[in-house]
Each structure stands twice: as structure tokens, then as C-alpha cells.
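From the pipeline queue, job 12 of 40. The input is one protein chain; the requested action is below.

Action: predict structure.
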Amino acid sequence: MAKKKPRGTRALVALEAAGVPHSVHAYEHHAESGLGYGLEAVQALGLPPEQVLKTLVAAVDGQLTVAVVPVTGRLDLKALAAAVGGKRATMAEVDAAERATGYVAGGISPLGQRTCLPTVVDDSAAGLAVVYVSAGRRGLDVGLAPADLVRLTGARTAPIARS
């Protein structure tokens, strides 16, 4: 009997394989909206902005590292570096982030990445019942418990976002 090929993005396949309860939310992506990918998801899906997280890739002392922060906040690069025991962090080049994760910018998911990168989730997520992150393509988000996000990504939590 032939094996069934997994369906969906690598992020969704990873969630299914781990048996993690989640919800999938698709919306029409409009590049011309000017909102940015995360705020576009908030508006299109009618979600509370504090529950929608964006996935950013930075280089900490030269090593690519994933940061997951609320879409309404900004990544504090010094705090990210400190969270992983580094000294200096800069935003990664887009093409390096895309190569390492296997996703395109605006659709980078912290789940199911091509390369397992160190990951830090902002500690504000811990107090929420559900968070929404990219499901691996523009216009597709997935909702899941923050504890499941941390567990599946092997992340640590730290205060890495600022307003």
C-alpha cells in the first residue's frame, strides 16, 4: 500500500504529526494594503492584535535565530541576544532567512522550518490561551496554545518585544 503524502505546509504537517490541536485561518493577502503581514492578518481575520505573533529571523553573533513577537510590537535585538547568551544581534538578510527556514518572507512560520534554528518566543504569549502565527505562507495563519508553540519549536521564552 502506498504511503499517503502529507498535505499542507510544513508547519501544518508538523502540527498534525505532533497531534497538536490547532485551527487554520486563511485570508486573501493584499501586498498593496501597506499594513505589513501581521497587521493584515489581524484585520482580515478579525483577531485580537495581542494574540497575533510575527516570526522574525535575526543573526546573533553570526548565528541565525528566530524571534516570535506580537505584531503590534518591535523586536528588541539586545534582549534577543541576551536571551540566547549572545552579545550582538542584527536582523538577518531576507534571502538568508528564506534559505534557512524554507519559507518566503511574510510567510515564515516558526513551525516546520527547514533548519532547526534557536527560537525565542516573547514572554507575553504565555498569558494567552491561543496565539496565531504564520502557517508557512502569506495569507495563512494557525492558532495554537502558546505552550505547544514553545514545545514544538524548542523555544525559550523571554521579554524580547517592546512597544
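Job complete. The first helix runs from residue 10 to 18.
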